[in-house]
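FAQ
Q: What does a multi-component entry look like?
A: The components come first, one per line:
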Amino acid sequence: MMSNLQSVLSSGRMAVTAEIGPPKSADAETVRKLARHLKGSADAFNLTDNQTAMVRLSSIASGVVCLQEGVEPIVQMTCRDRNRIAMQSDALGASALGIRNILCLSGDHQCFGNQKEAKNVYDVDSIGQLMLLRKMRDEGQVWGGDKLEKAPELFLGAAANPFADPFEHRVVRLAKKLAAGADFIQTQSIYDVDRFERWMSQVRARGLHEKVHIIAGVMPLKSHKVALYMKNKVSGMIVPDHIIDRMKNAADPKEEGIRMCVEQIKHLQSIEGVHGIHVMAVAWEEKVPVIVKEAGLLPRPVV
Amino acid sequence: MIIAEQKPIPRIVEMLEGHKSMLVVGCRSCVAICLAGGEKEVSILSEALRIESDLKGNGWQVDEVTLERACEKEWVGEMREKVSGHDAIISLACGVGAQVMQELYPDVRVLPGLDTSNMGAPEEQGIYLEKCGGCGDCVLHLTGGICPIARCSKSLLNGPCGGSQNGKCEIDPDVPCGWDQIYHSLERIGRLDLMEVPIPPKDWRRSRSGGPRKIVRKEAVLTPEEKSARGAR
Ligand code: SF4
Ligand code: SF4
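Then the predicted structure of the entire assembly, as tokens:
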């Protein structure tokens, strides 16, 4: 069965995805409650994979909880913690459990998390990972050629960060991900819209927007401190000063953050080649429905 | 060359528990260049251990020697007389040298005085950078002469991750992004086209993942006759 996300994207409608951060616990209820609350506000939900290298409930397990609630998951899978054996096995497992969307990621370095002494894996990188999973899906073979009795049914995603350097290479990296098997792309949170537009024009110049679905990422800000933190401490993130000032001068920063996010979504939709919006309301997931509603993207299509 | 640094003296002292007579052994090759285990470091450590012994009344006998190259049996064999009578060797050679010493002197306990870190090069005096991860299947021709395995924090094969910014790696603003360097090197060489080619998953069998590696150069290996002829000489 085709994933709902794939159906929406191939119908030509603007897709909406949102992020759910699994808890630092064995408690499935946290995910279940969020899934219930968020149901209907997006076409599919990303379950992050031990984001920032913090040990959390596994993304596949969280994805299964979402499925139980009738909510479609996008399972994130990093190259940091798995070699190609675990990666392929997890993809088979995810598919067997009904998970269709997998987002292939390098993953944050373990130095950011609570297992700093860990040895990382990086047997393959995100592009290699796409190659592995696509081969399983399209050729019914594991890497190396052994046949699978049943191929996994997957819709493959990858990330793109137009704000990382070297800027001129970013569109090339996108092209490589596409060549390696990416069906859809979710971008890093966009605050520097000018730079995003420049990137998108490079994307269009290469015709890539017609070959892959680009889903533009947004993250609502809670305060100007968060904005400053992201600007100064998160490598590969650009937050222009006018955004920080706007948050700083706001009477109600949280409301302002939501308002700004909604404005961004409205603008991003108008850019040629943007096929969807990805809302990353980190530790603020409950705001997703209102953001999506105010951006005029509700109700979500039933396809 | 091999880059290493000396363990803190208290750690070395801890390892010496139960020993009375030790030989501090240095090496004039790589570890001398990176100021970790050459003649000078050998004498400084030996002196520190003598002072420690005097202060604590350990009654240690500390002797010292620095070899030409501690990773070759020929050189390590030359210190046989020096070793005799000692119950411990403190190696200020790299981990390779320490193992060769243990192999040649199986009855003496060899203790590592250095932490061996990587295969690298001096960047400037006193600063040493890792350069090669010994993957066994070199790709420098594709990456502008800069190693993605050793110089990217994630050993990525297909370009800078989303954490690369202003030439720095996401792990630390003081760490250059290896892939940013590769990009600019390829740009200077006029081969940015290489950045466009997806590199498939690497075959790691020739890396450490394939088990301890052994390289045999058949034409150089001695026949039993040649060996005995050499032995006789
Ligand atoms: S590619 Fe492999 S052999 Fe070449 S420098 Fe890097 S780690 Fe060493
Ligand atoms: S920032 Fe550069 S060096 Fe660091 S992990 Fe990413 S690509 Fe590798």
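Q: Is there any commentary attached?
A: Sometimes. For this entry: The pocket of iron/sulfur cluster (ligand 2) is lined by residues B 152-154, 156, 160-161, 163-164, 169-170, 177-179 (CB under 6 Å).
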